[in-house]
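Target chain:
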Amino acid sequence: MGLDATVTDIEDWATGRANTTPETTTVTTTVRLIGTLVCRTAEESAVVTDQLPRHVALTRAEPGCDEFEVTPTEDPLVWRVEERFSDADAFRAHQARVAASAWGQATAGIERRYQISGRE
């Protein structure tokens, strides 16, 4: 009995009417990252503007990437970041790719203020 079990399946199992026991099911947790990328100078902001299109395209193509948005705010030095990955493994793979990427190297000194939920 997996995640697609019906109410009847569960009731039958719980009352002993079923001939099987439920399978062990691994529940995956979506990982969400929300926050800001804060540039100190117009030069850093220009780096973000230059590098961002490729970074977004590569990230959205990653397995497990459900949402990835980096948008400018009213402050030209601040960018809003919203990410959602299907599970912790997909998020870790994304982080590893970013660390080794042109984006990761070009923006390494730019402040990130992120809140991450769901990672294990």
User: Anything to note?
Assistant: The helical segments are 7-15, 42-60, 88-99, 102-106. The chain has one domain: 29-117. The chain is about 40% helix and 25% strand. Residues 29-117 form a domain with the Alpha-Beta Plaits fold (CATH 3.30.70.100).
